[in-house]
């Protein structure tokens, strides 16, 4: 018998209430400190990832407005303009068809990689500090956030040791393809929702599986059935994550979906019992998720493909944007052991997607063999081979030479939606697959007591060091005119009106778009850098055709010669200004051949007016 004194029947509840009250009265700082202690290892991983991301993008931080990524400044200009337009949602001035570029026709934001969700989320930063600051923050945050999200998935879902999970997360967030895409492709580096989507799919699968069942004594096997509540919550969560990713980067979502489909089929082949048990519930959950997501994204997707200024096909030639087979075992020029000579194996510095290098490929292959016959390993290997093969495009290229050997991509090329994804970007999906294999191997080694406990982590570490990235090259850029930054543009352009910068922006020289960005997209600009329909056929193209006056001014800016201006040119200039809906034409002293341009504009539109550091013409 217990020697404790008897207590009243209601003593236990009273003690519980008193304990709860004491906990609630604990200072918030104490509770916060306790939470930090519980998650200090995860916080340490987050700090390391953030520090590495900040180090890689360090060139932007001294002055984001005056610095730019040296390897792809055109796209940075475009994305900063996207962020400025997205931020106007906070001001109640936002539409999927914006009139702030390509006036008067406008630009279909869904048909462009406008990272709408990120732009709206960071709108306060953009409006307070400027789009260049938001761009720099996102460039770093996407790397660190992606690494942290994969780390948490590996640790909490695969139950891998934190060291193994951190190595895998680091590869996912800072692998060659991710660092390369950070050269202005925010829509491709914002992959921190992909691990969330993977986790929700796994959760949906587990909720769909009633288990093998138990005998009931009559020769039959009873199963409990799927967990319907968990099934629905997982489907709803998946719908939310997919919806958010649509408004961040559809191409990343497409690549994730293809990869998960290949892995699901591979896993089902290796575990047919699980497939038979879980398929009905899993299919129902995916249908619910798709239905819920379509309620939100259905209209925007229709708008993207069939709405005004929308495009129904891709504009990038798959044959040109195909990965060179030899680039797979080559080290990226942006890694410590890489060489600039290998840059010839891809289309540009933002597309080093396949450059994993032979050390990492070799170690990953050995790890896959050493880990053993796990169904997850089998699914990863199959998915990695499929996505890697698709990256080769419709025709295999080896060392810069076309081999005339058809690639697997030829089987799906031309299908709807597929054309919108560049073949070489299929390789980005291989990065987390390789990371998963390394995580499984390192975790298994750390749980063993033999020589593998040291050899496997050492081999993985050496392989990862071979692709360790270097800081992204940056350079200075001209300051935006005081005419814009000081708000003087409002003297000749009403809010929402059209300002014509001279020369006008083009995809190759989009620099005048920085004027609109600095003004928080407070005015529209004709022509510019964007994706839209071109000509009567509506074929997808970059930019649009020039009006005669725009072409004339571009020629003056390029050559410096003053053309002969007559009544016909003046009438055409008036027609073009009317077509654009322009209120004002502006020229700054730092424009190429500024004196020739000013003389030409005065012949077209009459005497100029000096406002701050710009010559202006009201039209």
Could you give a quick summary of the protein structure above?
This protein is an alpha+beta fold. Helix content is 52%, strand content 8%. It has helices spanning 11-25, 28-38, 40-56, 73-87, 116-121, 123-129, 131-156, 162-174, 176-181, 186-189, 194-208, 228-246, 250-270, 272-306, 358-371, 375-390, 430-446, 452-466, 482-485, 513-518, 548-559, 567-580, 594-605, and strands spanning 67-69, 97-98, 107-108, 214-215, 221-222, 395-398, 401-406, 474-476, 498-501, 531-534, 539-542, 582-588, 609-611, 614-618.
Shape: elongated
- From the alpha-carbon coordinates, what is the Rg to the nearest angstrom? 29 Å
Mean pLDDT: 92
Unreliable spans are: 1-9
The helical percent reads: 40-55%
Number of DSSP-assigned strands: 14
Distance between the termini: 100 Å
Give me the secondary-structure category: alpha+beta
Largest sheet: 4 strands, mixed
Lateral arrangement of strands in the main beta sheet: 9-12-14-13
Describe this structure in words.
The chain is an alpha+beta fold and 619 residues long. It is built from 23 helices and 14 strands. It has helices spanning 11-25, 28-38, 40-56, 73-87, 116-121, 123-129, 131-156, 162-174, 176-181, 186-189, 194-208, 228-246, 250-270, 272-306, 358-371, 375-390, 430-446, 452-466, 482-485, 513-518, 548-559, 567-580, 594-605, and strands at residues 67-69, 97-98, 107-108, 214-215, 221-222, 395-398, 401-406, 474-476, 498-501, 531-534, 539-542, 582-588, 609-611, 614-618. It has a four-stranded mixed beta sheet. A two-stranded antiparallel sheet has the order 1-8. Strands 2-3 form a two-stranded antiparallel ribbon. Strand 10 and strand 11 (539-542) form a beta hairpin. Helix 7 packs antiparallel against helix 8, helix 7 (131-156) runs parallel beside helix 11 and helix 13 runs antiparallel to helix 14 (272-306). The chain is elongated, with a radius of gyration of 29 Å. It starts with 10 loop residues before the first helix and ends with a strand. Mean pLDDT is 92; it is low at 1-9.
């Amino acid at each position: 018998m217990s020697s404790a004194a008897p207590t009243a029947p209601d003593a236990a509840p009273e003690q519980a209430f008193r304990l709860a009250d004491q906990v609630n009265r604990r200072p918030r700082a104490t509770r916060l400190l306790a939470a930090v202690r519980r998650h200090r290892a995860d916080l340490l991983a987050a700090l390391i990832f953030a520090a590495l991301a900040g180090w890689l993008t360090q060139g932007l931080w001294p002055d984001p407005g005056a610095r730019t990524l040296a390897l792809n400044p055109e796209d940075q200009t475009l994305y900063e303009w996207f962020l400025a337009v997205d931020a106007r949602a906070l001001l109640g001035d936002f539409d999927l068809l914006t009139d702030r570029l390509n006036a008067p026709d406008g630009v279909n934001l869904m048909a462009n990689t406008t990272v709408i969700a990120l732009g709206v989320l960071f709108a306060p930063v953009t409006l307070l500090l400027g789009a260049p600051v938001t761009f720099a923050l996102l460039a770093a945050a996407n790397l660190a956030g992606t690494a942290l999200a994969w780390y948490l998935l590996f640790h909490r879902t695969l139950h891998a040791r934190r060291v193994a999970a951190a190595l895998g997360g680091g590869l996912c967030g800072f692998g060659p393809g991710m660092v390369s895409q950070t050269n202005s492709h925010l829509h491709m580096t914002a992959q921190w929702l992909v691990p969330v989507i993977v986790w929700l799919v796994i959760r949906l699968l587990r909720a769909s599986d009633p288990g093998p069942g138990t005998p009931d004594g009559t020769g039959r096997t009873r199963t409990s059935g799927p967990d319907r509540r968990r099934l629905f919550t997982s489907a709803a969560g998946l719908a939310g994550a997919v919806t958010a990713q649509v408004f961040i980067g559809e191409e990343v979502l497409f690549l994730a979906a293809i990869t998960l489909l290949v892995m699901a089929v591979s896993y089902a082949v290796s575990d047919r019992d699980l497939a038979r048990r879980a398929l009905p519930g899993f299919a129902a959950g995916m249908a619910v998720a798709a239905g819920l997501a379509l309620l939100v994204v259905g209209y925007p997707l229709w708008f993207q493909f069939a709405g005004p200024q929308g495009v129904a096909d891709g504009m990038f030639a798959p044959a040109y944007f195909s990965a060179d087979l030899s680039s797979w075992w080559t080290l990226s020029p942006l890694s410590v052991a890489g060489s600039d000579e290998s840059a010839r194996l891809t289309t540009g510095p933002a597309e080093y997607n396949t450059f994993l290098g032979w050390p990492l490929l070799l170690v990953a292959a050995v790890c896959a063999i050493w880990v053993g016959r796990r169904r997850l390993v089998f699914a990863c290997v199959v998915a990695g081979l499929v996505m890697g093969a698709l990256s080769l495009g419709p025709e295999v290229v080896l060392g810069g030479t076309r081999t005339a050997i058809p690639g697997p991509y030829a089987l799906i090329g031309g299908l709807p939606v597929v054309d919108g994804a560049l073949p070489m970007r299929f390789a980005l999906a291989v990065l987390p697959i390789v990371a998963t294999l390394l995580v499984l191997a390192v975790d298994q080694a750390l749980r063993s007591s033999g020589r593998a406990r040291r050899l496997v982590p050492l081999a993985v570490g050496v392989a990862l060091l071979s692709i360790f990235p270097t800081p992204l090259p940056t350079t200075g850029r001209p300051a935006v005119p005081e005419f814009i930054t000081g708000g003087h543009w409002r003297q000749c352009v009403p809010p929402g009106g059209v300002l014509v910068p001279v020369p006008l922006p083009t995809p190759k020289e989009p620099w005048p778009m920085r004027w609109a960005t600095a003004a928080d997209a407070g005015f529209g600009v004709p022509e510019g850098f964007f994706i839209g329909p071109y000509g009567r056929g509506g074929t997808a193209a970059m930019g649009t055709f020039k009006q005669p006056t725009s072409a004339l001014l571009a020629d003056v800016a390029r050559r410096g010669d003053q053309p002969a201006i007559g009544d016909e040119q003046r009438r055409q200039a008036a027609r073009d200004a009317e077509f654009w809906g322009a209120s004002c034409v502006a020229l700054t002293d730092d424009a190429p051949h500024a004196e020739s341009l000013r003389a030409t504009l005065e012949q077209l539109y009459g005497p100029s007016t000096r406002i701050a550091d710009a010559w202006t013409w009201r039209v």
